[in-house]
## 1
Amino acid sequence: MAVSRRGLLAGSLLMTASLALGACGGGGGDSTSDEGADAKSLTLWHYEGPTSAMGVAWNKAIEIFKQKHPGVEVKFEEKGFEQIQQNAQMILNSDSAPDILEYNKGNATAGLLSKQGLLTDLSEQATKRGWDSKLSASLQTTAKYDEDGIMGSGKFFGVPNYGEYVMVYYNKAMFDKYKIAVPATLDEFTAAMDTFVKNKVTPLAVGGAEYPAQQIFYELALSKADRAFVDDYQLYKHKVDFNGPVLSYGAQTFADWVQKGYIAKNSASIKAEDMGTSWEQGKFPILISGSWWYGRFAKEIKNFEWGTFLFPGNNLHPGSSGNLWVVPEKSKAKSLAYDFIDITMSPEVQNLLGNSGGVPVAADPSAITDPKNKELIENFNKISTSDGLAFYPDWPAPGYYDVLVAGVQGLINGSKTPQAFRDEIAKPYNENLADLGK
Amino acid sequence: MTDRTERRRAAPMSDLAGEGQEGMTTETQDPMTLTATRAPQRRTAEKPALRERNPGRFLILTILLVLLLLIVAPLLVVAVNAVKSPADYAANGPLSLPGKLHWQGIVDFWNRVDFGLKLWNSFITSLAVAVLGVILSVLNAYALGIGRVRGRLWFLVFFLIANLLPQEVLVYPLYYLSKQFGLYDSLFSIIIIFTVIQSAFGTYLLTSVYTEFPKELLEAAAIDGAGKWRALWRVVVPVSRPTLAVLFTFFFIWTWNEFFLPLIFLISNDNQTVPVALGVLQGDRMMDATTTSASALIGIIPAMVFFLIFQRTLTRGIAAGAIK
């Protein structure tokens, strides 16, 4: 009896708490452009390491900001990703909120906070300062959210400084050893992998226990997809047929790749980190993953030459804008925060981001000195300007990441047929659609 | 009384070897006759014979060694990677020995998060919680265990349930309370919260210890004219000091290792504790293995040092000093 009473008490407390939270969120919205222009300090948070491309570029941006605003003190704090992810809602609802911070893009993060009224609408600033013309359409998708907090349309609630995309990393030494040229089509790519298999080398380093495997599946599906499919799948424009040609091809081809030995059966339990280090050690010739590895590979690989190419034959690639600069509704220095965002979008900071191994959204490729970084950025610009960013497969529904991990693991260890896999991932997707009332 | 305490003080020093095995078992068997069974002669007579005759000892020793290795292995991996350069890690993986010692990872991390300050924050909170938690537990347990207030069983059930409650449930109520009192983003909120959480366990445990408290002692004190307050500080607390020391140590280490609530309540970097500071390294998709190891190593060392200092208290066991 005591148990239930206690449980009831906790439950009711929780309920009042969440009600109160909802109530607190509603207000705000009176953002004029010179609000907080006379503030004497700017509290700024982000969670990128000091040696990462973003960390380097943003340090520079802080320096420039200080020069332009001599009387203003910049209070920068490096945060943990986990802390922001867990607590943003509570922090932004309190007086401890920073004036500007880096936050995750997506419906469940920036979208949710914008819906609760915790973020400042940046649309006016975006047009006035020309951020909207610097960001391509597929980059803007993750910066805009509608009243329901769903990305793709509505108002600007964040500004991305960098992008990311999935590509193919290859070990030049191993390609040379078996006299394989860089493939230009999917057929050449599979032929190259056949050569490796014939020589008893498993071609692909895959982390089946985390995000990498599902991104390969998505990449394969995208080879048969067009923009309309991506809009349907990610933005719920129309219903997605999980038995249609796109996803059928993706699932079937992924299963074939396992069958043909391109993907090792034991990779179902490999984590992304282990996938990366095994490729760094030269145990596999090819790795299909995101640009977030780029800086690290450049720094750490000393034993062999390597290069990258876009997944052959695809017009659409998994990828998106990076995380966003957002301005909390409770920010006490909004005008300064806008100035700071403007500085991060300036050619100087964008080019530095590119030269440090990142993928800037608005850099001038001719200002990038390192040929490898240049290639990375040119590839991104190619995708971005041709509207080729297809986002990530786990975005459409909450908790979908785990569904996809489990599903693709089933394909890798052969416990599921492609048909069973499609049925399994269709169910939570459609349930989420029903929840959204679409 | 004086005779007993003297003997207790002398005993641990003379039996460094046998403390763990025999001391413990006899104590749990029959605490009331503890001083009698602990006679040193008997032990010295038995020990050598046991050692020679029992071949099972080797088996047990091997098993213990394997277990020890299993327990120490993760720590060793952490230590090895903490002093490895990132390039070395990338080339040879996590299990290889470092080519040369690379201390830069530790130094960089220390400066990056201002680790000295984090250590100080952790130390202050843990110490405050340990002291306050023990005091609160003693007061509660005195009322419930010795004072025998009405409905104490329900009090105990309540404390037990409070112990079992996951911290996630507490987050929102505590968040609003602390905001209301202006304690959000302040070490005081953490000290208050953990004093209560830890003393819930302390109360539960101490109460069961105090229920068995020898009445004669209390009666003797009452006859000598001691009031309730005096009996608590002059009789109950000194007699149960070993148990209190164990509680103190546990409270300290537990609070030191807390991650979830400090993560939520300590927002500014200046207020953060060690485990929260370690979280800085966890990225969205990237994991910096060598720096993470370096941070884990310097994060765990203080707790280990504290444990080593107080391990004598711990080996005496929670119930050991209860009834002497």
## 2
Amino acid sequence: MSSTEQRLLEEAGRCINCGFCEAVCPTLPSSGYNSSRGARGRVMLGREMLDSAARGEGISQFADSFFSCLDCYACLQVCPAGVNAGRVSHMARELITGRGEGVPQLARLMERMIMRYHSIVPLGRRASAWAKGLNIPAAGETLLYTGQMYQLMSYSSAMTSFLHGRGKGISRTIVGSVLRLPWLMRLAPLLNDREIEEEMGNSLRNIATMLDREGVKFCYMGESEPYPGTLMHDLGFASSMKEYASFVAGEFRKRGARRVITVDPHTHDLLKNTYPQLVEGFDFEVVHYTELLDPESFSRGSDDVSFHEPCHMTRRFDDFSAPARLLGRVAEVKLPDSSGRKTHCCGGPDELLYPGIAGGVSRARMKQLREAGGRLTVTACPVCLLNLGREGEAMDISDLLVRRMKPGS
Amino acid sequence: MGLHEDLTAIVPDGVLSSREELIPYSRDASHFQGKLPVAVVLPRTTEQVSRVLKYCNDHSIRVVARGGGTSLTGASIAVDNAVVMSLLRMDSVLSISVEDRCAEVEAGVRIDSLNLKLSKLGQLFPPDPGSSIAATVGGIINTNAGGLHCVRYGTTKDWILGLEAVLMDGSVLRLGNRTLKSRIGYDLTSLIVGSEGTLAVVTRAFLKIVSKPEEVGRVLAFFMDIESLGRAVAAIKASGIEPLTAEYMDRMTMDAVESTGTFKFEVRAPYVLLLDVDGPGEAIGRRLAAASAMLSENGATGVVSTRDRDEMERLYTARKGAYSSLLKLRKSERDAVVIGDIVVPPSSLPAVLRRIGELVSADGVRVALFGHIGDGNIHANIFVDFSDSAETGRVERFHTHLAETALEHGGSVSAEHGIGIEKIGLLRMEYSSRHSEKALDIMKSMKSLFDPKGLLNPGKVFD
């Protein structure tokens, strides 16, 4: 038995099927209450998959259950036995990708793109268009690392539609060609949504502006900045991810970086919690940009907002309160019933492979945010922003903060 | 057409049939391994429920209805060649009337979700099983579940005004009413409550609701012996303080809870009592102080009280998850936990708890004790490796002795978890001890009136 199989057995073996996790798993209602798409079902199927593998049988039939998990860790918050169904799914995905059986074609495509182009979409100059005119140096001790997360959002919707064969003139043959010939994804920039690109670019400029006004000196890698590999890690491509993480860390070193400033919770979580396990000697200081902003630099406005706390912010760290603290400083903040460690996922992680489930989850979350009573929804993650924004008006926290930064700060 | 196609024609996009999709429905929260269902159907409406049941009845196909799948006695596991009907898609709170003190809800609404909605109106649906986060209205009605609030509010049956239920032949019955009073012949509503899915499929319910307690305070009192704890609870109740909850845990349960990181107990003692008192804001402090003083006077070696909401919630969550937490203390993954669920008159508790201690030693079993001590309900959680025949024999013996002890003191073998598969023999024992075996015959006759072919949840409650 491999170490991943052993760890999966240990995690799943502690479960006694009480069903508490299923009650909070966002993908269960969104999948029409199909229990194989819920946390308890995934843990049960994790054990089944190991049994199948031990019997020498195929395991591809289990793939949908595990690949549809959002990794949001809502399950862990309520499990009295401390079982993490999200980790079960992650380890199951690692086994599936390791054996090469049942790996969704889109997942393979993403792995190939990241390994070949260091991004999901070869963005070229578009990746750094937001920084034009800001004169940020290309090397230095402190690196502002966007990880292309904001930049990629403008391709997300159209790319998902395209890869699922939806849209005028998109045939299965065309999609099949892309899946077989990943270099065709170099044409993906044609799928860009200019409005979202503008919006996301503004958020990045706001972040850079605020850091600058706080006196933080930083550099930026520009269009050669690599994607952090988040999706490849989430999809369970463990060996590729290990290799890729070393590459990214090497790029940081080439720029002379000692400290890395992250701008989104996925990258922050990955660099803080996963990279040190993957890259020997990963000794960079990793900080989120909101941790460098002094609340005293901001003044209160009349905004009345519902705050969506991203899962990777509230559930992957014991205390990650800087965004909430800043937001509370500038606006009247209303939290939905599911907040803090009990926050509800935006559905984003399922967008590429299971857009139907992702849509159901984001609709459910937006309903909760509206019921919280804020006039506007604010979040601190580009993935959440994009997914919630499809269901109603949503704003990135940086856009609100920059408006309330005191003159002279 | 085949079964899958026929069911799909009734419930489009609501039928599961691949092995991977069916596996999660083969088990519930009990230690029983059920069979793989032949299909799972997820209806959205009462009409779909009716048509599916009629189809299955016409084709003599067994049906097991399922809510949150939280049964601890195997009541909701799939049986051979059965269709599992999950009611989770029927999850609407249809109306709440504070004036009428009534909520009309579909069967798949989870208890905590319902209470979240009610709390915004200052209201409460009191039944509060440990599994309330996952348990559904339909599930707790069929189980007649109890929980932490029973000492004040009683069990689920006390909170059901009326039901919509579908018989196996597809007939839809609307029983009871949304009114607090309703005398319309035999009380079929009450008959269905606690019937464990063997008589009808509950699709909708009129629930009685009450105003939420204004303020709640929580006391933790630690004891060196269980009899003192039992006497302290009796003293509290005799004093006129009506606790909202009165729960206890033994050392092993506390260790299990602490091992999950949910809660850390400030005092290390063999037993702890968790007592909630409520009242208006201006009185709650005084009531907490009075309860604390009384517990100290009655043998508590340490008393801690709190009104901090976060701390209270963590403690309540810890208690509700006690059963699952115990699984961390299994010696191996083969170990299961059989739950004794006896109830005795609270006045008998000190004697019964002492006797249980003797039985644990005499029968040589590993047992964690916790329960709703305020209403006399004791959960004896017995660790067992079913592959070890000697241990299995010891556990069965202890479980029987436990039931006999309850009966000797005027109690019952099953308080709130129901009969399911696990307690079929104990149910027989209880009626036999009362020389009332005929009651079981009457129940079986009733079952055949509701479900002549015996297709609804067969093998549960009776052989």
